[in-house]
């Protein structure tokens, strides 16, 4: 057999992606910033309450069975000495931006996938396994050396971005896993179905109903069968990704903007909760104006403090970014939901701006433009209000009485959305 050249090795391994996943990110940032938390079981919670759950857990806590989703009461039962810290989204975004700068010094970032995950595309000589591994180790070490020793990460290297993300999950913390094209399915066979990105609880159940219980069975299915199971092109895309081929990227258009808030105990009485809803609407309006959008609908959802009680309502109106108009609409929705909820206390409030369109949307071919419901005087006041809050701090000027509300209302880190710095001032 002839010797394999470096070019042949690239074709065989087809290592196109390096995927970085920060380990227990929120908890690691807290341990980095507070030496008293290092090497100790600790969790991060969204609000100071005994009735909430962990959104992150340190590896010392995970070793005791405490993980994301564990309630505070359960965590204390498992570990009476558990340390609890309230989330600091602005700090996590700040460290996130430093991590991006550090990674980019070694390898250009192709896509920021979440607050704690980035994907980098490998090119030419970087696709040799030895070279890709060296890049991964360098990134891991540089983050710990230049940002913080507690900020460990795992690296996945693979042909498709989805497989690279999968590989990054295989060994934690501080792991580096390579999935070569010529070795597939290889290490994938050791995984469970729900270890694969895109296979959540409902899809796992759907696969089981189709007679698929293992990754080996899933890998052996043809693309048309996955399309049937997924119910659309998502199945084709998953098949290609699983077999090391990146499906075509599809640009998505923003359709909504939303904010929600789990209320502290003193904000749960119905009238106090309404103040939080008004604050969330004001934040949505500020965000619409900053991003250059208007909305034509508002959806309100409130959840009762006890049981499964929930009420929701939606209204459509001429498009606007006028917070005064939006708060007026929300007040009407609130009266409807409060009567329907039939509870004196509210646990969670969620606001969604729907029918979102660019503020400068041009006329269509027939000359149609959306009807706009904005008062010019309102918009001048709101522009001044936005400027003052960005300069002097959030809620320096408010619409109506200032609501005693959690400092990061609305500016939370979601799985696939990282707040912009401006959001912490809105």
TrEMBL record:
Enzyme Commission number, as recorded: 2.7.7.7
InterPro entries documented for this protein: DNA/RNA_pol_sf, DNA_pol_Y-fam_little_finger, DNA_polymerase-Y, IMS_HHH_1, Rev_trsase/Diguanyl_cyclase, UmuC
GO biological process, one term: DNA repair
SUPFAM superfamilies membership: DNA/RNA polymerases
Molecular function via GO: damaged DNA binding; DNA-directed DNA polymerase activity
Pfam families, sorted: IMS (PF00817), IMS_C (PF11799), IMS_HHH_1 (PF21999)
Domain of life according to the entry: Bacteria
EC category name: transferase
Listed GO CC annotations: cytosol
Domain UmuC: 17-200
Catalytic reactions of this protein: DNA(n) + a 2'-deoxyribonucleoside 5'-triphosphate = DNA(n+1) + diphosphate
Family: Belongs to the DNA polymerase type-Y family.
Reported function: Poorly processive, error-prone DNA polymerase involved in untargeted mutagenesis. Copies undamaged DNA at stalled replication forks, which arise in vivo from mismatched or misaligned primer ends. These misaligned primers can be extended by PolIV. Exhibits no 3'-5' exonuclease (proofreading) activity. May be involved in translesional synthesis, in conjunction with the beta clamp from PolIII.
Subunit field text: Monomer.
Protein name as it appears in the record: DNA-directed DNA polymerase
Organism listed in the record: Asticcacaulis endophyticus
Upper taxonomic lineage: Bacteria, Pseudomonadati, Pseudomonadota, Alphaproteobacteria, Caulobacterales
């Amino acid at each position: 057999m002839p010797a394999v050249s470096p070019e042949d090795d690239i074709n065989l391994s087809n290592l196109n992606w390096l995927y970085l996943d920060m380990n227990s990110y929120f908890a690691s940032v807290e341990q980095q910033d507070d030496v008293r938390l290092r090497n100790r079981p600790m969790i991060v919670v969204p609000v100071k309450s005994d009735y909430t759950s962990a959104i992150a857990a340190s590896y010392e806590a995970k070793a005791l069975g405490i993980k994301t989703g564990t309630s505070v009461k359960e965590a204390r039962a498992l570990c009476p000495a558990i340390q609890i810290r309230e989330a600091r989204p602005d700090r996590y975004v700040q460290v996130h931006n430093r991590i991006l700068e550090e990674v980019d010094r070694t390898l250009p970032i192709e896509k920021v996938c979440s607050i704690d995950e980035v994907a980098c595309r490998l090119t030419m000589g970087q696709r040799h396994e030895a070279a890709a591994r060296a890049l991964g180790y360098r990134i891991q070490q540089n983050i710990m050396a230049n940002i913080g020793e507690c900020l460990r990460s795992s690296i996945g290297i693979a042909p498709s971005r989805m497989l690279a993300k999968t590989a990054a999950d295989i060994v934690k913390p501080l792991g580096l896993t390579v999935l070569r094209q010529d070795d597939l399915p290889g290490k994938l066979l050791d995984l469970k179905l729900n270890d694969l990105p895109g296979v959540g609880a409902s899809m796992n159940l759907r696969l089981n109903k189709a007679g698929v219980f293992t990754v080996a069975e899933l890998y052996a299915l043809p693309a048309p069968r996955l399309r049937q199971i997924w119910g659309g092109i998502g199945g084709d895309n998953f098949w290609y990704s699983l077999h090391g081929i990146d499906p075509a990227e599809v640009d998505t258009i923003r359709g909504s903007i939303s904010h929600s808030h789990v209320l502290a105990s003193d904000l749960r009485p119905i009238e106090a909760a309404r103040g939080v809803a008004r604050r969330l609407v004001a934040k949505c309006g500020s965000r619409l104006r900053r991003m250059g959008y208007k909305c034509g609908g508002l959806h309100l959802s409130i959840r009762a403090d006890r049981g499964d009680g929930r009420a929701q309502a939606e209204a459509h109106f001429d498009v606007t970014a006028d917070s005064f108009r939006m708060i007026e609409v929300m007040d009407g929705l609130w009266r409807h939901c409060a009567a329907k909820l039939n509870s004196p206390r509210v646990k969670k409030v969620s606001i969604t701006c729907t029918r979102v369109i660019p503020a400068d949307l041009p006329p269509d071919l027939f000359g149609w433009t959306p009807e706009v419901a904005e008062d010019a005087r309102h918009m001048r006041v709101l522009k001044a209000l936005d400027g003052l809050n960005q300069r002097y701090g959030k809620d320096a000027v408010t619409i109506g009485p200032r609501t005693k509300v959690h400092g990061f209302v609305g500016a939370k880190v979601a799985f696939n959305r990282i707040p912009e710095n401006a959001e912490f001032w809105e």
